[in-house]
Amino acid sequence: MTRPVSVAGRLLDLAAVGLIVAGGVTYAVAYQGLERLRTAPEIAYTKGMLIEALAEFHRLTTLSRVGLGLVVLGVVMGVVAAITARRNRAG
Length: 91
Prior knowledge:
The chain is 85% helix and 0% strand. By secondary structure, it is mostly helical.
C-alpha cells in the first residue's frame, strides 16, 4: 500500500502549476503586444516615435522571456517534486 501524498508535496505541485500558468499568461500578454506592434501602421520617422517603438519592443521581448522562464521554472519544480515524492514512497 502506498503512502498518501503529503501536504508539502501538494503545495509544491500547486506552486509548480501556478508558475506554469503565470508564465503562460505573461508570455501571451507579451505576444499580444508584439503582434500589435507588428500590425501597427508604419511608424513616422521622427526620432521620438522610433525610440518609443523600440523601447516598447524591448519591454515586450523581455516580458516574453520572463514568461518562458517562469514556465521552465514551473516545469523544473514539478519534476523535482515528482522525483522527491517517488523517492519518499520507495524508501
